[in-house]
Design brief:
37% of the residues lie in helices and 17% in strands. The protein has helices at residues 23-26, 58-73, 86-96, 118-126, 143-156, 170-180, 198-205, 214-224, and strands at 11-15, 34-39, 47-51, 78-80, 101-104, 130-133, 157-162, 184-187, 209-210.
Amino acid sequence: MSVKKCLKGERFEIEQGSALYPQNLATIPRPPKKLYGIGDPAALQPGLAVIGARKATPYGAGCARRFARIAAEKGVVIISGGARGCDSEAHRAALSVAGRTVAFLGGGCDELYPAGHLTLFQRMVDAGGAVVSEQSWDVQPLPYMFRERNRLIAGLAQAVLIVEAGLPSGTFSTADEALDAGREVLVVPGSITSPVSHGSNHLLFQGATPIIDDESFEEALFRVF
């Protein structure tokens, strides 16, 4: 019988209304009543959410790394969902420049998903970041919980950068949550023939801020932060 491996580090529980509760989350629709996390609760500050397709193309993965690294080098906390693809690339890019990064999980923090990212999550905690959920510690992740956690990714962020998104997709739903929370949505354009860019390009058509190079991204960071 295998033994479940859990993250090592400081554990915290933050109730809505407490001094440690992130102000950005207090103002979103349906703010979480309680947050459960491992790591440094001080990492739960307004940052940049970097999200994209789980089945990322090399283009999407590269953009996630590129822009997450630039923001982290400027001291911006990188927020994402810890998933395969663009999410994990963004977390790793932040860590590569000694930045702090936060992952919001669908299930509890003792039911890591994906389980294969245990080492990545531990690196995040060890580097002063945090792994967080609104679900209690041992809650098994269910599909609807990932849609719910997207509002937390968007809500904690000051801006959301979408590097690759299909239609429909969880990434696209996070953009909706960002707009509902009044956050700025930044989007990297993609090929019009790529299914994983249909959502991204649609957001640009609707008026999202295009990120076309390092300069446009740094201007957006300056404006938001």
